[in-house]
Specification:
This protein is an alpha+beta fold. It has one domain. It contains 1 helix and 7 strands, in the order E-E-E-H-E-E-E-E. The mean pLDDT is about 85.
Amino acid sequence: MTREDFPSGYVVVSAEIPDTLEVLTSDLVFDAASRNHARSQSIGDDWFDRRLSAAMLVPLAAVSGAWNYLLNPEHPEFRRIVVTRPVAFEFDPRLFA
């Protein structure tokens, strides 16, 4: 694989969530073997559509034991979250060696 084959167009942003903002924690336990996408999508859709919180902590499917935040721009408290400007993301070439 050459450098030209690396994925491109990715960016990184960070968000500062105030301590006083409610962050829900998903009760979803991701089983990587089952790949239960329909259930996780249903939970996310319900959370988003009902505007249950501006942020929700969810388990990562790709990294066992790691978590990520989903942000809901439709929630009235979303404006309290400070999101940085996107910065180009460069993959470490050692990943593709």
